[in-house]
Amino acid sequence: MSARAARFAAAFLAFVSTFLIYRSTLLPGFDFGDTPSFQVMAGEPMITPRDAYPLYFGIGRLFVWGLGGDPARALNTASAVEAALASSIVVLVASELAGSAAAGFAVGLLLAGSYTFWSQAIIAEVYALHAVFVALTLLLLLRWSARPTLGRLTWFVAVYALGFGNHLTMILLAPAYLLFLFLRAPGGWRSLINARVVLMTLTLTALASLQYAWNLRALWLAPMAPDSLLDGLGAFWFDVTKEDWRQSMVAEVPIQVTGERLRMYAFDMLQQFGWIGPALAAAGLVQLYRTDGTKLCLLGMLYAVNAVFALSYNVGDAHVFFLPSHLAMALLAAPGLVWLGSVLRRPRAVPLLAAALAFAAGVRIYDNFPALDRSGDTRPEAALSALSRDLDDQRAVLLTDMNWQAQNGLTYFARRMRQDLAFALMPDVLPYAPALIRDNLAIGRDVVLTERAAMSLTAAYGSSWTLDADPRVATPTLAELARSIPAGTRYVVCVLRPTRETSLDTEDVAEGLRILTGGSPVSIDGREFMAVGGLAGTPPLLAEKRDAPFRTRFDLGGVPVDVRMESWLAFDTIRRMGFGHVVAARRHALIVERGVSLVTLDGRGAPIVRAYLSGIFAPEGRYIVRR
């Protein structure tokens, strides 16, 4: 088999194997957070500038059309395909860098099994497709450097420009790509500044920008269309680039927390690759320094620019913005294997080292599989089904004021799954709430409010109406849950510092833990992470409290339990995969959220009861407006 054929065979094997892994752990439906906002737009004829991502939605429509049924699952599947494709392209890029298909395959597995990459491969998100464009532009750039023709350069520019239709952080690749182009141009950097190249670049950029005509058109179909083209373009640019967000987030991490941010990054890096990834990447830098300084500049700058951007980006899910730097680090492992092979000076050292790396990557995949398996995660649907129980548009209207992540989920739930549910956002209707309430009550339709909506109404209009707690919705405390758990039942309780918008009832948590532990002293002292586990009514078998992420294993009545805290609470306010996990007998028993997360287990490690308090999955009370 030729070297070229071997590389494509390795890439194909990586695609098939990683897709099967992602498909088996795929989120079955919708989620909370940004994900349902993507899922609800799937197949929609109009995409506003604020929605952006025209290429992502265009590809998503193809999956919805091809797979039919549930748009949420179709978009989740699209991410799995895109992530598997990204892994296979990484195999080709790494093979180019190392001159070895075996090394390329090992590096592809290393990235595919990394925690954050995997977590984004099984939900509807834009990051898997972004990885495709990062890897594909790198491959095309390396192919151009091997034979620098105008045709190959055209392909690179076309794909790079197209990638902006998925995510605007493609701009972060520009410094590394421009430097590499100028360094590798056969006639010097000036040879790239000629009429043909400039015209080709401008033409392809203009054509790629037409993707956003879909978004721009939506402005003139809106109820309040722009007064002029200039006004429309201004509004378009503001929304597509999220200018309001950028002003408060880009390079806005306070300098005082730099040390904490770097500690978060060290945790994140080890979470993805363990020590082997950074070690091989460092060896790869040495190898490229010895053999090809331009490729060292390319990958080194690509890594540095994306890592610095994510470190300085004041956003609640900075971990996903590290993904391009993770990809660069994984690619550096390929020349790292070559350097180690040169040190060992043994025949076929590189294939043997690649096999060892592939084995290590496989071990990490095996280890992470139960924690990243979301195939049974139906929490969003269960939470919103409980919130909307016994409500329909014939009998009631629901007014909500919820956490934005849950609110996005409710939008998908109502539009795709409960089309008989009438709801409105309380902030939108508050100015005319009296008329809305009066008219609905007049036709015999209940007006039902969520907790924050009820507080907003009372704050705005005082005691104009009587608000009665709706007895059809249960909001048990931890103490009440603990009393309902039979003695001797296996349990694990995780307590994580809640976000600023929620509060923790420490007295209730202390009472609940006292009941579960048979009166054993377990204090609530404000630590970031806390995990307590045992048999109900007896002293705990696990009582762990720390201010940093941790992982611990213990035997729970004959069931091996693995408690994993997988977040950095100083900065992580959004974790689509959850903030931690409880794995029992290699079964994903509980996704841990901020606040209180509880699971009880049977003798096989299967969950019996899952419950959340003080977080986005905590049951929310309802109130009924009375005359």
What do these coordinates show?
The chain is an alpha+beta fold. It has 3 domains: 3-372, no CATH class; 379-473; 478-615, no CATH class. 55% of the residues lie in helices and 13% in strands. It is built from 26 helices and 14 strands. The strands form 3 sheets. It has a 5-stranded mixed β-sheet. Strands 7-6-5-12-13 form a 5-stranded antiparallel β-sheet, with helices on one face. A 4-stranded antiparallel β-sheet has the order 8-9-10-11, covered by helices on one side. Helix 18 (323-344) packs antiparallel against helix 19. It is globular. The termini are far apart.
Summarize the structure.
With 627 residues, this protein is an alpha+beta fold. The protein has helices spanning 3-24, 35-41, 54-67, 71-98, 101-112, 115-121, 127-146, 150-163, 174-184, 195-209, 213-221, 229-240, 243-249, 258-273, 276-291, 293-312, 318-321, 323-344, 349-372, 379-387, 404-417, 426-429, 433-442, 451-461, 478-484, 506-516, and strands spanning 396-400, 423-425, 446-450, 466-469, 490-496, 529-535, 542-546, 551-556, 559-565, 580-584, 587-592, 595-601, 607-613, 622-626.
